[in-house]
């Protein structure tokens, strides 16, 4: 497919040598056959937020927020105002009568929050001199408020007026938040998940109070997501994955993901080096309500929250840590990595007996907390008759730095951002060629022919 056309990175060494992960130039199941490079940032691009069916915003360490048209690749607006890197960004859609308007909220290391109008590029509201940098943003559309997480949990209305806030939190502060039923919020703070409840008092005054601390993780929580109305999930630095009840906050399932020890050399009893912590760290989680994908080190794990069992996994999906994943409508999934690649995977039935899975692989899901493992994994082959394999069907090579994340616009294409300061819009060449032909014919008609 497309080789390293940008930057100065050398060809993939380990991938080129591995026939399983190198599928060559011919990729019939990969329809991302055309790319468009979008330039405008001059530092790492970390965030992409979809505004509507045609527009998206990008932001990163240069403090800029750029608004783009995904179909044309045109840079529509350049939003300047932050003096340091962007630490969080989200879209805020609100309805007034029959009109619906989407704004952008950004947070920066300069300890400011800003509300932007992506139609005009104006900074509508700003809050400065915050006590700490904001690390995460969460919109609660039903309550017409939004939440910022830093050393405090702050609740704001649409006019950027502070409604209430929690007490000051020491150490690392709040790194991630998700909305829960009954006006509750789950916030990740180091090793704990803190449950806050919003209450409307007389006079329509909002208040926030801590109601529970979930201290079941043994290390820092790196991922926190909603699964559906009844479940949410969290993942930690040491490979702990916990499925929670969203109403009563009890553990529905617990798993400690550990690498299976190599058995290629039974006489090699002395380990030359201990595994790096990142090799089992859960960097990111994503879900469509039925399946959940965990990015664990350089591997991928697909878990069914319905059957409480692993569906598919690949221990080495990339050369480096996987940073972002997405489930596809056709049953496949997509991942991007620090190695600069974006890969498309298809879940296929195993033709041969599955690779033995130790108790470290999603196999020992149990209810309650008694299952926590602190020692080596139990060498027990699990009976997983429905286990499938992840087969590589597409390899998008274009970035020369770590790909931070991507956002999909369906048939219009996929947009990726990277540490190489670039955005790439990946598209279907046949569709784009057809659209260009239609545009040319329309132009000819307007000009009365050739």
Automatic annotation (TrEMBL):
WD repeat copies, ranges: 38-78, 79-126, 315-348
Recorded GO CC terms: lysosomal membrane
Record SUPFAM superfamilies: WD40 repeat-like
Record Gene3D superfamilies: YVTN repeat-like/Quinoprotein amine dehydrogenase
Keyword Ion transport: no
UniProt keyword Nucleotide-binding, yes or no: no
One Gene Ontology term from the biological process aspect of the record: regulation of autophagy
Keywords: Repeat, WD repeat
Protein name: WD repeat domain 41
């Amino acid at each position: 497919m497309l080789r390293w056309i940008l930057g100065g990175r050398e060809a993939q060494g380990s991938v080129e040598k591995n026939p399983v992960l190198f599928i060559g130039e011919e990729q019939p199941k990969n329809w991302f056959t055309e790319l468009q490079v979008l330039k405008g940032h001059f530092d790492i691009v970390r965030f992409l937020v979809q505004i509507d069916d045609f527009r998206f915003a990008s932001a990163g360490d240069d403090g800029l927020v750029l608004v783009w048209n995904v179909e044309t690749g045109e840079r529509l607006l350049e939003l300047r105002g932050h003096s340091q890197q962007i630490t969080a960004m989200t879209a805020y859609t609100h309805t007034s009568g029959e009109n619906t308007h989407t704004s952008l909220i950004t947070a920066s290391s300069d300890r400011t929050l800003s509300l932007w109008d992506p139609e005009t590029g104006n900074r509508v509201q700003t809050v400065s001199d915050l006590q700490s940098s904001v690390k995460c943003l969460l919109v609660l559309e039903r309550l017409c408020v939004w939440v910022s997480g830093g050393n405090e949990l702050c609740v704001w209305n649409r006019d950027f007026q502070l409604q209430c806030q929690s007490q000051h939190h020491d150490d690392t502060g709040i790194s991630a938040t998700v909305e829960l039923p009954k006006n509750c919020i789950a916030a990740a703070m180091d090793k704990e998940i803190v449950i806050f409840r919003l209450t409307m008092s007389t006079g329509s005054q909002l208040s926030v109070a801590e109601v529970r601390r979930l201290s079941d993780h043994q290390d820092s929580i790196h991922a926190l997501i909603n699964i559906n109305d009844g479940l949410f999930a969290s993942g930690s630095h040491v490979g702990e994955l916990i499925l929670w009840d969203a109403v009563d906050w009890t553990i529905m399932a617990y798993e400690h993901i550990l690498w299976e020890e190599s058995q290629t050399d039974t006489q090699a009893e002395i380990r030359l080096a201990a595994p790096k912590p990142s090799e089992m760290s859960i960097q990111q989680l994503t879900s469509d309500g039925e399946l959940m994908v965990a990015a664990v080190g350089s591997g991928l794990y697909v878990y069914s929250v319905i059957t409480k069992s692993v569906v598919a996994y690949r221990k080495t999906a990339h050369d480096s840590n996987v940073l972002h994943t997405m489930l596809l409508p056709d049953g496949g999934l997509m991942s991007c990595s620090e190695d600069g690649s974006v890969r498309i995977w298809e879940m296929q039935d195993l033709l041969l007996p599955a690779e033995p899975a130790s108790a470290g692989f999603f196999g020992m899901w149990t209810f309650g907390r008694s299952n926590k493992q602190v020692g080596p994994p139990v060498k027990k082959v699990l009976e997983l008759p429905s286990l499938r394999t992840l087969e590589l069907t597409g390899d998008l090579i274009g970035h020369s730095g770590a790909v931070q994340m991507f956002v999909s616009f369906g048939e219009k294409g996929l947009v990726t951002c990277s540490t190489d300061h670039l955005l790439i819009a990946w598209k279907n060449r046949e569709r784009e060629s057809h659209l260009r032909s239609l545009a040319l014919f329309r132009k000819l008609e307007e000009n009365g022919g050739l």
